[in-house]
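BUG: 3D viewer hangs when loading the predicted structure for this chain

Environment: internal workstation, default settings.
Expected: structure renders.
Actual: progress bar stalls at 90%.

Input used:
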Amino acid sequence: MHQPLSYRHRVITDENLVFIRKLIADHPGSSRRNLSERLCKAWNWVQANGALRSMVCRGLMLMLHRQGLIELPPVRWVNRNPFLERSTPDTITVDEAQLSMALAELGSLEVRQVRRTPDEAVFNGLMQQHHYLGYTQPVGEHLKYMVFAERRPIACMAWSSAPRHLGSRDRFIGWTAPARRANIQLLAYNTRFLILPWVTVPHLASHLLGRIARRLSSDWQSVYGHPIYFVETFIDPQRFAGTCYRAANWTLMGVTTGRGKDAPTYEPNRSIKQVLGYPLVKDFRQRLARLDDAVGQATPA
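Structure tokens produced before the viewer hung:
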């Protein structure tokens, strides 16, 4: 092998190739899925919550197969893509009577993390019906919150894995490229925030941002096995002022370039967004700069 190979920032050595070829030869009846799981176990390639990184491993093996460096067994079946075939969320019927009052008059609010619960379908439906962007199924790690006032839903908020490359955010944190690659999973991105349209309660949005920010890291730890140290979001200034985020002490870190990650040129092809961030711990820069004990990283042997 004359040129170094890498996949997801891992260098693939000649010894790695020999190991994979032997693994395939030793298990001639195994499927591609089974081989990737065996390789994950052999390399201890796991996520922070202990689950095998089998999808990443399959991508690695497919890359090597296409380059002629290993020979995988034939594909046995083609899996359906649930993201392409996913149906639109069902229409949700809730109490839409006008709710207009001071925040103190709302009484005790209940905040529920509804990911992987029966309420997740309600969340999806409300987002589809009432958020201007509709509902999109997140890919990767994500959590969903619903807020209730006397058992009546009044707000929804979604969080997902942060974008891997975001110039203004990366400059604000000040981490190196290796630190970003090692610790990007310690950031979360607020993808959707919906106050239901019949709810008019001053300061409710900033109050909920603070409430959920205080529990987000522990909830993420419970579901995915690692904490969150920093959160971010995008604001379209042509639509919103981002007042609730600023009231909740989020910081304007900069703006996007107006180019998607797969943009063919350097010319903007979409609206430029403001990038706001909020640290969940005081020493977030030090924690995100660490390389020695990066959470969730398991290097194959």
